[in-house]
Design a protein that fits this description.
The chain is of the alpha+beta class and 71 residues long. It has helices spanning 6-16, 44-54, and strands at residues 2-4, 19-23, 29-32, 39-41, 56-61, 64-69. The longest helix is centred in the first third of the chain and has 11 residues, at 6-16. The strands form two sheets. A three-stranded antiparallel β-sheet has the order 1-5-6. It has a three-stranded antiparallel β-sheet with strand order 3-2-4. A hairpin with a 2-residue loop joins strand 5 (56-61) and strand 6. The protein has two helices and six strands, in the order βαβββαββ.
């Protein structure tokens, strides 16, 4: 998997109908289609701030994205 920037993640998310989300009551973030009651859609700015504050990055391989600790 290769680390990508938030702008690239936005492009991929848009193509796949994904939005940035947070698990309600936590600071856990992930991508969502918005149909899960346990997740709330958050602004991209909040998503990016959470990535930075928790030392996380978005990684991509073959169109799949995953949020992981930066190496």
């Amino acid at each position: 998997m290769e680390q990508i920037g938030v702008e690239k993640a936005k492009e991929i998310a848009k193509k796949k109908g994904l939005k940035p989300g947070r698990v309600k009551g936590t600071n856990g973030i992930q991508f969502t289609k918005g149909s899960n009651d346990r997740l709330e859609i958050i602004p991209w700015e909040d998503f990016e701030k959470t990535l930075k504050s928790r030392g996380l990055g978005v990684y991509e391989s073959g169109g799949w994205m995953k949020i992981m600790k930066k190496a």
